[in-house]
Amino acid sequence: PNYSLMVVAFNLSKTHEDAFKQLNAIATGCDRAGVKFYTVTVNDGKVDEFRHKNQTAYPFYYADETPLKTMIRSNPGLMLLKNGVVINKWHYRHLPTFDELNQKYFSVK
Predict the structure, then answer these.
(1) 9-36: string of b/e by CB count within 10 Å (b at 16+)?
(2) Phi, psi angle pair for 8, to nearest 5°
(3) For position 37, what pLDDT does the model report?
(4) Burial of 1 (0-12, 13-18, 19+ CB in 10 A)
(5) How far apart are CA 65 and CA 84, in angstroms?
(6) pLDDT tens, position by position, 14-68
């Protein structure tokens, strides 16, 4: 229920890892605000290595590559959902900050 942010990274070996620095900052803000934040990716056997290298402290879930590419054509991309309905999507080159998300959607003090 309520808002959640889903990172879609359909191929971790080809994803733009620099984007995860900004995604990690958003995740930290979401954690403080009580907004669920997670990643969905393909289980290529190297997820734990990727998570350790990029210090991602949020859950990773698995799905097939084709539906993930259908959801968003960015690797990674960020999707905002509210009660399971897609509200907005962002390419990794145009990610918002947590403060921008909070001001426009969450209004958490």
Answers:
(1) bbebeebeeebbeebeebbebbeebebe
(2) -110, 115
(3) 98
(4) exposed
(5) 20
(6) 999 999 999 999 999 999 999 999 999 999 999 999 999 999 999 999 999 999 9
